[in-house]
User: Fold this.
Amino acid sequence: MLVQRKGRMVVIEGCSVDIDHAVNSLRRLGASRVLVQSPLGLRKIAARVGQILAEKGFDVAFSSSNCWGGCDIAYHEAAAMGADALIHLGHTPFLKKDRTQTIYLECRYAEDGALKSLVPEITETVKGFASVGVGSSVQWLDCLKVVVEELRRVGLKVLTAKPSMHAVETAQVLGCDVSALKTLENSVETYLVVGSVFHALGIALLTSKPCFAADPHTQKVKNLWEMRERILRQRHYNIERFKKCQNVAVLVSVKPGQKKLGLARRINSMLKNYGKNSCILAADEITPSTILENTFEAFVNTACPRLSIEDQSQFSKPVILPAEAMVAMNALSWEEVVDEGLLMYPWGWTGGQAADKFWRPLRMVTT
Assistant:
């Protein structure tokens, strides 16, 4: 495994890792036993980080569970392992306060060569617009300037913004948080997201403006309009399926950053008032194997909204989002959900009248 020094950073598998920050933070905390957590794609980096920490005298264990984001910190595993602290790779802080002392190593890409080689196609794709809102996954943030500078050089107005929900860095986009882009809605003609289709699809589903995903790994720039329209048709179809179901459940994830029990209780009460046989169903991992053996005909998903977007095809039953449940109960129209960007959790990037349309019927419900 290639490991190099680049200033204060250690470059492992092409990613910059601030080992010095981790070591100094652990020592400042007086931690001796450490749990290292990473998503599947960063397990090689995690192994090297653990090795370096062990060489520094720390007692290191690794989490082998799935890790879906900063919303999915392994607090329970850390407690079970007697860890004094967590090292979490690949994400920025998601929660306002960690239950266990947690040190975040973002693992941003150290070199911008792959992105530079894609810049000509990016420029050709968006040059017909006067203005563009730009964002990226955290791994590409340090390289984003090569895109911004070139687009400005050819005359485009390029805007970035700070997020207002769970993301923390300017221009940062998460699967569940595109507030850094959505806040630019009235100032740009199009959006460009550097990273994967997954990250770009979040904004594509919440705006009617053209959205493009620039993926340095595949060396492709993709227009997401057709994907957006197909998914919105699928979402509407599942709302119609849900309307016909009598026995339903509201899904609650117990993952630290996904647990929205208050919202689930309100939706559950509203469904009962609407005449559905409804209850709350809790799980850590929400998968077909964990929920479909229950006797429910359909579900409302208050956990990660992307479960309903990317994984609906894996479920044989409707797994609709809270705003879609409002449509099924005639509290919102489908046009309002689509036109005002309410599909995924709307409170992070919509304010005033739009957000109130979602919350008003829920506030009237007693739990």
Observations:
- The radius of gyration is 22 Å.
- The chain has three domains: 3-108, 113-223, 230-363.
- The chain has a mean pLDDT of 93.
